[in-house]
Specification:
The complex is a heterodimer of chains A (782) and B (381). Chain A has 782 residues and is an alpha/beta fold. In chain A, 57% of the residues lie in helices and 9% in strands. Chain B is an alpha+beta fold. The chains are: A alpha/beta (782), B alpha+beta (381).
């Protein structure tokens, strides 16, 4: 008790002290800048470099304080950015990836920077940013004229960039007798190398895999460009994907992957494209990747590797990925923010960053300096990245983020899964994209959402309801003791009631209102417009991905619920034995249920890895007996095995259900079992005729909870596959998340949430109705 | 109907607790044997060993001459009525009663019935046979109107009847009862006792019955087995148990109110037996005590049943009345005399009051003598 009081007092003291300090500092500091960035692949080192850089800036500008926020990886970064924007407190300076510039600029979130550059050039020519010293392709990436990238206003100063190419395992090349790639190698060279490697076997007699070829839309477009094909004409209204030439090139890629054995691997998720590719020691080449994999590859032991730029086809081409520092259009200290950006992209800062090896400095002189071209570190071919920059260009996509996801998802059906041909997948993409473009929701001109009248109506209803309730309470109970008891009851329940109102009822009502609106979730909520039932209409009638996600989720539920319940019950039966150390076993069974979701998901991604995974390593010899190969869970066989893989993963966490079953089993009176034995029942009949009926209420409860849980599956899919390939593992809630936090369609996502609620409700009711007569509550009564 | 033989049967629980110690017991065809003793004496364990619900640690247990030590309960052809009835809560009364019979069929029978009309016919006969047996048992117990109900909708007494009915329907070799009446109220218990007795007479089946209530034991059993700490203390008819208890424990356990026991010294003074216990001195000529005269004087325990203690106006040992319990037809009077607390049973007498003075006389001819040291065995008779 004393300890608890002491701890509380101490923590209050600390918090108070800190608040006092910051207040004291505030009196001397005029301005505070908020900086938001991420350090995904760069890890703690990148975090430290940014921190040092900011502290150095503070020293130079004593009247400015910089508060730094690093939510982690790029995904969390954009979520955090969105919440900050929606709450009306955007960061002053933040990272913006080239792929988001257009959409952010459309939402008027970014400050055009050309005026600042011009002003600097006049007022302080010495340390002004000289864009001529930058790689031109990186600067172009952040220009946007409201229609296409590469021209128009500048919305960010690129901090670093990367070109792409293939990384290769030198040992495997030597073993296969293939010469190392040169900087000017062609796709024919690439393919020859991949085939030669595929024909070679490792010392254990297992075949090597020629190359990993990721099929992200960006890389597919890079591949097309090397063959002289472009996916668009003047702008994205003129799509040329179904052009014969383009289709032919894509079909060639498909054929390499699908028709040849081991030449190119089929798909992997984004998660598995890091070190995982090479740690199995079976893959000759991997790419096209940028520079971001370098820190991770450096950490792999006994791995001799190098880099080769993207092979050339008809032309030499490459693409860049780049990130810039941008200034928020809503910042109240724009000049200071600009000064900070100037500092962060200065040669000194870039040189410090370059040491990580994570990306290429955008200033040519820094990139050519030893800070980047470090001969003591792999890859030896740092120059390969720089030389490609000369002919590289940015990959621009329409400002609608759906375009990339739709294109990638549909192309993957042909390239990864192989259940569609290239023309079919392109056709499917064109149709879906047309639906998006022609959606009534995509048009503007909706009226403002009438927040005020609605708020007043709700407030009035609340007041009326409360008054009625209070009046009823006071009049219906004329007995004083009862009234006192009622009062005390409400008083005691009030913390919960208040909590429920604030944290549950309010969001529920809000989400319903939002489901009737179109709100991007990046501006204040007043910017929402009223669309009536259009969200629901679009979802239920026109959105094929909604139906797909529902199908995937149902498929998963059909496997996960019965399978999971049977396993949980079996585990509970096992754990109900009176054996020495049973408490340990129970804890061990339950343990997986308390482990954190993301870590576990990462772990399982490894287990389901097609080539190096534990699951397939175990299945391969078993299935070999019947001349079958284990499934390519999240690749070729994802349509059939994708959802079941998640169900199998869920089976690992039957501990929660098991505990409830165990409690149920232990409440079955021992006497009943004895009576049944005397009634000449064997152990199986006892289980079927006595235990199961007695457990039936528990089974029903667990079933309903499991069904609800299945429809809310998110973390695993988000981490392990991100919904890929295609939409084959895009569960309902994952699609909802995509809508809310990637496409910035809060209204649409809210409508999805409400439909999910109705579906779950309906399923629960069906289960309850359908199980009538099968559930025996008599055993519960004592 | 069957006989049961227990030959030096013992039970040791995993913790090393000896629940039952070397019990020898032979139960005849159609006999009603009651196992009685205080809680923890091993009577339920013994019954459960007969049922097969507990393993036998030592000795042999046979039913009809067949050793049953390793035979599972389902193969022993027994029926058991549990203290909490153990009715299947999810089945109605009819199914509860028929359950033991229904389960004799194997799972694919339903499938088989589809293809074989002969099999289906035999099943119909079987089914109607079961129904008839259930109805007969229900008639016997007067529960015909309850057949469609579930156990939760029955009163304690009704559940008890159903539990018994379930046993009857099975027509087993042996009926086992594990304190079946202990959850009923006193009146119902007495009624059910009589019914069980009648049931036994009608069925003529072998029954083993466990209770901690000596009254129940005495009223039901053809023979009673008194157990303490896992040891059998006496196996005899109720009458023998009452009239010639084998030792101090049985003497004190059986009978309400319990026997008055005095620790003291017995001597023979000029042909008269003299028993002294602190200030209490009892004298009399008791011819039946002659066999132990040679060993006198000796310390021993004298037991007198309350009904053999007479309260007289004068001429006995003076005593004070501490409490009077009226039963209408009789009275139990707690008195204190010479430092001893004594219970006497008399006919109704309005003159006796709490705190009143009275004299007390003991019928030594019907008194019991026990050793005052282990094993506290009966000295004579």
């Amino acid at each position: 008790m004393v300890l608890a009081i002491g701890l509380v007092a101490w923590s209050f003291h600390r918090v108070g002290w800190r608040a006092f300090h910051s207040w004291q500092n505030h009196s001397t500091v005029d301005k505070e800048l908020v900086v938001l960035h991420w350090s995904g692949e760069g890890g703690p080192e990148e975090d430290a470099i940014v921190e040092d850089s900011l502290r150095a800036f503070e020293k130079l500008h004593p009247n400015v304080r910089v508060r730094r926020i690093n939510p982690g990886d790029a995904g969390s970064f954009y979520t955090k950015l969105q919440t900050m924007l929606a709450s009306g407190s955007p960061p002053d300076v933040f990272y913006v990836g080239a792929e988001r510039v257009a959409s952010f600029a459309d939402m008027e979130l970014l400050e055009p920077l050309d005026p600042y550059l011009r002003a600097d050039a006049e007022s302080r020519p010495d340390d002004a940013i000289n864009l001529d010293g930058f790689f031109p392709c990186t600067v172009e990436a952040f220009r946007y004229d409201g229609n296409r990238s590469g021209a128009g206003a500048l919305y960010g100063i690129p901090k670093d960039f990367t070109t792409v190419g293939f990384y290769y395992n030198k040992d495997i090349f030597l073993r296969a007798g293939v010469p190392f790639p040169k900087d000017d190698w062609t796709w024919d060279d690439y393919l020859a190398a991949a085939r030669a490697i595929a024909a070679t076997r490792n010392p254990d007699g297992e075949p090597y895999i020629g190359s990993e070829f990721v099929t992200w839309p960006m890389m597919v477009r890079a591949f097309l460009r090397t063959e002289g094909a472009e996916v668009r004409g003047g702008d994205f209204n003129d799509l040329r994907l179904d052009d014969e030439h383009t289709v032919a090139i894509l079909d060639r890629l498909r054929a390499w992957r699908q028709d040849e054995v081991n030449t190119l691997t089929s798909g992997r998720s984004k998660l598995a494209t890091g070190a995982a590719v090479f740690t199995t020691g079976r893959v000759g080449m991997a790419g096209p990747f940028g520079r971001w994999v370098v820190p991770e590859y450096r950490r792999i032991r006994d791995f001799d590797w190098d880099f080769a730029p993207l092979p050339r086809g008809k032309v030499q081409s490459n693409v860049i990925a780049t990130v810039a520092w941008s200034v928020s259009a809503q910042s109240s200290h724009k000049d200071e923010a600009w000064a900070l950006v100037r500092w962060l992209v200065s040669p000194e800062s870039q040189a410090a960053n370059a040491k990580l090896g994570l990306a290429i400095p955008t200033i040519r002189s820094v990139a050519e300096s030893p800070s980047f071209l470090d001969p003591s570190q792999k890859p030896a071919n740092d120059r390969g990245f720089l030389d490609s920059a000369a002919y590289a260009s940015v990959v621009d996509w329409p400002s609608d983020p759906r375009f990339e996801q739709l294109l990638g998802g549909n192309l993957d059906r042909a390239l990864k899964v192989g259940d569609l041909t290239v023309p079919q997948s392109i056709d499917s993409f064109m149709k879906q994209w047309a639906i998006e473009k022609n959606s009534p929701l995509a048009k503007s001109g909706f009226p403002r959402f009438p927040w005020q009248p609605i708020a007043w109506t709700i407030a009035c209803c609340c007041v009326v309801a409360l008054t009625t309730f209070g009046w009823w309470c006071l009049t219906s109970r004329n007995d004083r003791a009862t009234r006192d008891e009622t009062k005390a009851g409400w008083l005691l329940a009030s913390p919960w009631v208040l909590g429920f109102m604030l944290f549950m009822a309010f969001p529920i009502v809000m989400s319903f209102l939002l489901s009737l609106s179109k709100w991007r979730g990046v501006g204040p909520i007043e910017t929402a417009s009223f669309v009536g039932g259009a969200n629901y209409f679009q979802l239920l009638i026109h959105d094929p991905r909604f139906a797909t996600s529902l199908k995937v989720t149902l498929y998963y539920t059909l496997i996960a619920v019965p399978g999971g319940q049977i396993l949980a019950l079996m585990a509970a039966l096992l754990m109900n034995q009176k054996v020495r150390g049973i408490h340990f076993f129970r804890a061990a069974w339950y343990l997986p249920s308390v482990l954190a979701g993301v870590g576990v998901a990462v772990l399982w991604r490894w287990i389901f890895d097609t080539d190096g995974g534990l699951m397939n390593a175990a299945l391969r010899p078993l299935l070999a007996c019947v001349h079958l190969a284990p499934p390519d869970w999240f690749g070729k066989d994802a349509a059939v095995w994708g959802a079941p893989a998640f169900a199998i993963m869920g089976f690992w966490m039957v501990g929660g259900g098991m505990m409830i079953y165990l409690a149920g089993l232990q409440s079955v009176p021992e006497e009943l079992m004895e009576a049944a034995r005397i009634d000449r029942l064997g152990s199986f009949s006892r289980f079927m005729r006595i235990t199961l009926p007695m457990l039936s209420p528990v089974i029903l409860f667990n079933m309903i909870m499991a069904i609800i849980g299945c429809f809310q599956v998110f973390t695993q899919a988000f981490v392990m596959t991100g919904g890929e390939p295609g939409d084959l593992t895009r569960f309902y809630v994952l699609y909802l998340y995509n809508q809310a936090f990637e496409f910035y369609e809060m209204g649409y996502a809210s409508a999805m949430a409400w439909i999910l609620l109705l579906i779950t409700l309906a399923l629960t009711l069906i289960t309850l109705r359908g199980s009538r007569g099968l559930i025996h509550y008599e055993g519960m009564k004592r | 109907m069957a006989s049961i033989q227990l030959n030096r049967v013992g039970k040791i629980y995993p913790g090393g607790v000896h629940a039952v110690q070397s019990v020898d017991l032979s139960i005849e065809h159609g006999e009603f044997v009651v196992l009685v003793g205080p809680s923890g004496c091993g009577k339920s364990t013994l019954l459960r060993m007969i049922a097969g619900l507990e393993t036998v640690s030592s000795g042999t247990l046979s039913i009809d001459g067949v050793v049953m030590n390793d035979v599972p309960p389902q193969d022993r052809d027994i029926a058991m009525v549990f203290q909490n009835y153990a009715l299947y809560p999810h089945m109605d009364v009819r199914t509860n009663m028929a359950f033991g019979l229904l389960r004799r069929r194997r799972f694919p029978s339903r499938l088989k019935a589809c293809f074989s009309s002969a099999y289906a016919a035999s099943r119909r006969i079987e089914r109607s046979d079961i129904d008839a047996r259930v109805m007969a048992a229900a008639n016997t117990l007067g529960i015909e109107s309850l057949l469609a109900r579930k156990p939760a909708a029955l009163s304690g007494g009704q559940r008890q009847r159903v539990a018994v009915g379930r046993a009857i329907v099975r027509q087993p070799k042996v009926f086992l009862f594990d304190e079946p009446l202990s959850n009923l109220d006193a009146k119902l218990r007495v009624e059910m006792r009589a019914e069980l007795r009648m049931l036994h007479r009608r069925l003529g089946a072998t029954m083993v019955y466990v209770t901690h209530d000596q009254e129940e034991a005495m009223s039901l059993g053809d023979r009673v087995v008194v157990l303490q700490d896992g040891w059998t203390q006496q196996i005899a008819t109720p009458r023998e148990i009452y009239e010639t208890p084998a030792n101090q424990f049985v003497a004190g356990f059986v009978g309400t109110p319990t026997m008055n026991l005095f620790q003291g010294t017995l001597a023979c003074e000029s042909g008269r037996m003299v028993f002294t216990s602190s200030h209490l001195r009892l004298e009399g000529s008791v011819p039946s005590w002659q066999p132990i005269v040679p060993s006198l004087p000796r310390s021993c325990c004298l037991g007198v049943r309350p009904e053999h203690v007479q309260l007289v106006a004068s001429g006995g040992t003076p005593a004070t009345i501490e409490a009077v319990e009226h039963y209408g037809d009789r009275m139990d009077v707690v008195i204190r005399s010479c430092g001893h607390r004594i219970v006497a049973r008399t006919g109704p007498d309005a003159t006796l009051r709490d705190g009143g003075a009275v004299a007390v006389q003991f019928d030594l001819a019907r008194a019991h003598l026990f050793e005052s040291t282990k094993p506290f065995a009966r000295l004579i008779g």
